[in-house]
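Recap quiz, item 2
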Amino acid sequence: MRSRRWLDLAPLALVVSASALGAAVSREPPGRLHPAQAWCGPSFERPLGCGEAGVDLLSLVSSAELRAVALASIVSVAGLAIGAPLGAAAALARGRFERVVERSCDLVQALPSFILALAVLSALRTPSRAALAAVFALTAWAPFARLALAQTRVLRDAAFVEAAVALGRGRPGVVVRHILPNLLGVVAVQLGSTGAAIVVSEAALAFVGFAPPGGVSLGGVLDQGVAAMLLAPHVLLIGGAAVFATSASMLVAGRAARSLPMGRRS
Amino acid sequence: MRRTSPSGARVLAVVGARVLEALFVALLLASLVFFALRLLPGDPAQLILGDEASPAELARVRATLHLDQPLFVQYLGFLRGLATLDLGDSLRQPGTHAMARVAAAVVPTGALAAIAVGLGTVAGLAAAVLASGPWLGGLTRWVERGLVAAAAAPLVAFAPVLTWALAVRARVVPLPGDPDTPAAGLLFASALLAIPLAAHLGRIARASLADVARAQFLVTAQAKGVAPARVWVVHALAAVAGPITTVVATQLGALLGGAVVLERMFERRGLGTLILEAYATRDLPVLEGAVVATGVLFIVAQAAGVAVHTAIDPRARSNA
């Protein structure tokens, strides 16, 4: 079980360390222009070649990957931190609060999230990374809350929870001490798919023109690649592979949570 | 299938409740757009005209957009405009109603999404039936693995790569933005959009078919000597139609998001490109109209999915 968990984390570790290495090796900040080398192919000096106006792709892709992973990790952990206690508290409270939280989850999950992100970001001149994170967090909490709600419905009738209540522990105490440790393993599995979805959404938003300042995004690389499809196909192939590797590695990393300790259930 | 007597009324009740909920979601999305454009930092009039605008010009744009009125009055006016389908003139094309530009864009996006739903459903069901029946033998596992891989592949990554491979290398489909072959371009874009839907649908349908595989009615049909194709397509697929419509409905949001990406990539006219253009030129009435229209398109399609589900599956009516 334990070795399996590390195996699940290996692809993400590989993507992050390769990006960090790439950023270190390229020796220049992402986005510096060398117009004479525009669209040049991979060479010893520029291992991944150049993009539009001669930006070094190794530097651009490495930084974009690191930032995408950071954004996705922060937002999905924030979603877990908001959603899991909310869902657990709702299921414990029962009655109207439970119904309201459940319906809100349905509603948020029914909203087309990409269109929602477009709508909110279109109010800004250039979307900052903080704005992107806020937009993704608007919907990221819902699946966590839904899972926590379902899991707590099972847990709330467990003998140890009833015992804790009977011994006079308040609701916040029961949630923090007894419910959360027992549902984290189930709920945390969602981290991977939420993270992967955020990597893809960030790339898609940048691809259609909602790039963060500086344009350092995998979607920006794909956009350049599509524009120069005939001239320099390596840009498009590198961008596509980077998006795929980053999102797939996050997806696999989520599975590591399956083997999280399941708390003090026994 | 056995029918309970007031099933028509049940269908109406379920659909009615969904319509109310759908209207509420549409209102929520519209309000979010409205308040985001007005409450987030930055003066909309300034954003529209740029930094060098004179105070007189700013005042004129504020008056056109009613930005000089209290927020509550603006909101009521916006809701009235939505209800009467009149959000005023487009700022960038004076004399053209914002809603007329939106209406012209709904058709191509609707066509793209509808063809993608059709292709994706057929392909997904075909893969699921092939993997469930006795035809493929050892290849079954590969069909299942292919579905998992396709479901995990993000559209924004594989669509450009596939387009390059098929349009530039193999030259079997037209290049993005080629105006000479609109039908082939539309079909190719829809096929790309259909891939994630087909993969998700195929996985769920495969799992549902595995659930009913040992059901008595299927065993009976097989024992009576019905051909495998008829067993799986006619008997088993009908029993899992419920989960299938639900999957299509839940994938619609992602499908519309994908449509925006593909419209931008293929330089096709549609709601996605209209939203992006209205954003770039700060054409607020068009932007609001286009986002709300996209939301309504999504909601109508989803409600249609639920209606189909309740109409074909009596089990969906019982828990109204």
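Residues 98-132 of chain B form the longest helix (35 residues).
Chain B has a mean pLDDT of 83.
End of item.
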